[in-house]
Write a structure and sequence with these properties.
The protein has 80 residues and is of the alpha+beta class. It is built from three helices and seven strands, in the order βαββααββββ. The strands form two sheets. A five-stranded mixed beta sheet has the order 2-1-7-4-5. Strands 3-6 form a two-stranded antiparallel ribbon.
Length: 80
């Protein structure tokens, strides 16, 4: 019974891995608690997006992930 977190871009470097599993179910407060410290600044920022099973959430605080779900943490995109 787990939720798979996927860290993309710079977040993978900060997390020290591209993926991690957390016990299911997980909501926004549980995610913040699980990742506090290493990614806390990114989680608090407005530019971080979350996707659950490929669907980007309009409001990351609405996160409700269940067993088998994939939650991707999406950093802001830059480029030119």
């Amino acid at each position: 019974m787990a939720v798979r977190l996927v860290f993309l871009g710079k977040l993978a470097d900060l997390a020290g891995a591209s993926e991690r599993e957390l016990a299911a179910p997980i909501d926004w407060p549980a995610l913040v608690e699980a990742l506090q410290g290493e990614l806390g600044e990114w989680l608090a920022g407005d530019k971080l997006k979350l996707a659950v099973n490929g669907a980007v959430l309009a409001d990351k605080r609405a996160l409700q992930a269940r067993d088998g779900d994939e939650v991707a943490l999406l950093p802001p995109v830059s480029g030119g």
